[in-house]
Specification:
The protein is of the alpha+beta class. The chain folds into two domains: 82 residues, Immunoglobulins (Immunoglobulin-like, Sandwich); 86 residues, no CATH class. Helices cover 36% and strands 25% of the residues. The strands form two sheets. Strands 2, 3, 5, 6 and 7 form a five-stranded antiparallel β-sheet that branches. Strand 5 and strand 6 form a beta hairpin. Helix 1 crosses helix 3. The chain starts with a strand and ends with a helix. The relative contact order is 0.13.
């Protein structure tokens, strides 16, 4: 009787329970996983948890779309229910991309780590732009659109630099410097 049972329902914006498989993420208030993320089917799962406060989110396959996070308090020996709403994209995505279909959004997301890792392995700017150009073309966009996304991400990192801890700031400044070589 020491744990509580958390019922999780994933719903679309019309409040219907989704019919897709998803993966559940439950973290404590420090952002650490309290259970290993796992897959569940048809928009519903249950999990037993010790009493406490948790942050819960779910990701749905077929688009890598996540629900917004929600906080839930699990009480000892009691059932708790949480409904997670599956919007098109999470609220922290860049506003210009909110209406982008996922087939365009995901390629944009890989541009930044691709440029960063390309520098680490010594690829030339032309090689990287060629590879990203193919990905952009497959996503029905041009390379300039993809690179503009990276420029906005770099600008956002720079604008929030003061919020980083010293060692994180050093790493972020290094990353920004490496990315600029390819822009």
């Amino acid at each position: 009787m020491g744990t509580g049972r958390l019922n999780v329902w994933v719903r679309d914006v019309n409040c219907n329970v989704i019919e897709k498989d998803a993966h559940l993420h439950v973290q404590n208030c420090h952002g650490r996983d309290v259970i290993r993320p796992f897959w569940f089917v048809k928009g519903h799962t249950e999990v037993d948890l010790p009493p406490g406060c948790y942050m819960v989110t779910a990701g749905v396959i077929g688009g890598n779309i996540y629900t917004d996070k929600t906080m839930v308090v699990v009480k000892c020996g009691e059932p708790t229910c949480v409904n997670l709403v599956l919007t098109k994209f999470r609220a922290d995505n860049p506003p210009a991309l909110l209406e982008q279909p996922i087939t365009r959004y995901c390629p944009l997301l890989i541009a930044l780590p691709t440029l960063y890792n390309a520098n680490l392995v010594g690829l030339k700017k032309e090689e990287v732009h060629g590879a990203l150009g193919v990905i952009a073309k497959a996503a029905n966009m041009d390379l300039d659109t993809m690179l503009e996304f990276v420029r906005r991400e770099v600008k956002m990192i720079q604008e929030h630099m003061k919020e980083f801890k010293d060692e994180e700031r050093d790493e972020a400044e290094k990353m920004v410097g490496l990315l600029r070589k390819y822009l």
